[in-house]
Specification:
By secondary structure, this protein is an all-alpha fold. The chain has helices spanning 2-27, 34-65, 69-73, 76-101, 117-141; strands spanning 31-32, 113-114. It has one domain.
């Protein structure tokens, strides 16, 4: 039963992670008002919280309630999936730092916050990466990559 609950929580959190990232992508514009920056910064923090749930449930599936560490650890598809996920986490650091450092701008401030293009590209790249991770999960479940 624990396998089912952990797997369900993992799936739901992956869906929520993608939804939050898509929402952030939709809200981000090259120029933002102070209130929008605060709102997007909160969405970004929610993304991090859900990302932690994805990571923890993924670890539990790997080492505790899944098919066992040997099934995953010797599979290059698993390595690719984990590598891409950790790369997406690393890529998230710059947008998060940018948004959190500008969230204290007053709501009534007439000055716009200019969002670097790099952040918009990072969000797009993360969306592309996150769409591939379920494919790798299905491949792993089918034993593809085990030789």
């Amino acid at each position: 039963m624990s396998f089912v609950l952990v797997r369900y929580l993992h799936f739901i959190s992956v869906i929520a992670l993608f939804a939050l990232l898509l929402f952030e992508f939709y809200l981000l514009k090259p120029s933002l008002k102070g209130r929008a920056v605060k709102y997007i910064a909160n969405v970004d923090l929610s993304y991090w919280a859900v990302g932690i749930v994805v990571l923890v449930t993924g670890i539990l599936l790997t080492v505790a309630v899944g098919k066992g560490m040997n099934f995953y650890i010797h599979n290059p598809v698993y390595d690719l999936k984990v590598g891409l996920f950790l790369g997406a986490v690393a890529a998230t650091l710059y947008p998060t730092w940018f948004l959190q450092s500008r969230r204290r701008i007053p709501d009534d401030d007439d000055d716009d916050v200019q969002v670097p293009r790099t952040i918009l590209y990072i969000i797009r790249a993360k969306l592309a990466v996150l769409t591939t991770l379920p494919l790798f999960a299905v491949m792993m479940a089918q034993g593809i990559g085990l030789g």
